[in-house]
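Please check the following for our workbook:

***
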Amino acid sequence: MSATIATRHSRRVDIGQLGARYGTVGAAILIFAVFALASARFVSPSNISNILVQISVLTVISSGLTVAVASGEFDLSVGQVAGLSGVLVAGLMSWSGLSIPVAIGLSILAGTVLGIVNGVLVTRLRIPSLIATLAMGPIALGLNYAYDGGDSIYTSFPAMFYAIATGHVLGVVPVPIVIAIVVVAAFYVLVNRTRLGRALVATGSNLQAARLSGINVNRCRLIALTLSAFGAAMGGVMLTARLGTGQPGAGESYLMDSLTAVFLGMTAFKPGRATVQGTLVGVIIIGMLDNGLNLLGAPFYMQNEVRGVVMIAAVSLAVLRGEIRFF
């Protein structure tokens, strides 16, 4: 009798654990099903490809931010860093006449340097990452305006640069999707399959315990914030290739979208922890909501409202279940 009761209790626990780990994935499937029933165009191959292309920049930026959050830090400068790198790559090609690889490399390097500065402020001056990166955002935006005079850069870029946004690999798979897959795979391997990744996660889980176990926590935090800026800079370059212009404020909206994706991801797979695979699910949810609402003719402002409601609901549920703690 007691064995039967124990078995039933175990099954309830298992169901609860499955719900906690894969509930967000189930929500993504449900959203897909609802939009598929509401509009036949939603499930067309061309629209699926369009969704994946649309979320490619967000995927790259969010993947870098995930590493920072996994280490216990926040990076509120990713949007402005993306904007700075996007304007830099446009100016370096059109005004300075640099080649595409050099312009892209220098632009990503500039964004990454800002990440290093964030890391130094946090680890050396002991400024909380929320404050340090919040201050770095306006600094990046100011550098942006200083470089382009506050104006967008409208010019014709080399055809190979546009291929970052419009090209296809083997004539089939859009280049932005390939870039996003490579970046996600690289960050996934880093966080889950390397010694550095395990140290980053340990630092984010319990800073003092990680320090006592011999982990150089300041090094981990510095690297995490640097990688976050690196991802933002890459996303900024991709965004400029998509827009065809260098716009100073083009990346600012990606901060909230990236945070939403990361927090949604923290309710999936390993509740309470930022994971690359969880963030990917969050990005896909955002992409489906935006695309599906557009197909249904919903007002443009409803996308932001729905996105905010989804984020509040997901994070509130996780907080109530004790999966995420902010203090």
Remarks:
- The CA atoms of residues 219 and 318 lie 30 Å apart.
- The chain has one domain: 2-320.
- The two ends are 43 Å apart (CA to CA).
